Amino acid sequence: MDAYTQTIADQPWRHGRHQEDIQCVHGQPINIGISEADRQTIVDGLSRLLADSYTLYLQTHNFHWNVTGPMFNTLHTMFMTQYTEQWGALDLIAERIRALGFPAPGTYAEYARLSSVKEVTGVPKAMEMVRILVDAQEATARTARSLFPVVEAANDQPTADLITQRLDVHEKTAWMLRSLLEE
Question: Which residue in 76, 103, 114, 127 is a FRET match for 24, CA 20 to 30 A apart?
């Protein structure tokens, strides 16, 4: 432990905070009112959400490139709108992980391990792409929703706001995609 971290460790804590609740990153303590253990649990969930979101992004972009058939233009355009929105969300999720004091996962290996969205092999037919994306949107929504108990218990409003926004997008997108499957 360097001198600065030791000095921080030896300080009496004000405002009811305990030493074990303060994590030092590069010698600078993180004291945002959420314990390190709670932040780690939240980050674990956000990492799964990031992995699901990235896998969904890649899948949607893949389908945008490879869709064919009578609904080509509709689906090509719809998938582009979806993957563009998802791309922006990736940064928001990763930056929330960083704000909580932990590194964001960023490799294919990490995403494959963490994601609940199943990877697709080959090039499915257009309507099968839609079914796959419904399942992936719903899986991502379930992952986001699973974070609420710990986020609420930790009083982490920024993460609650982020996952509420993501739930709105994933649930609405799943509904729109499901609408295409009706006969």
Answer: 114
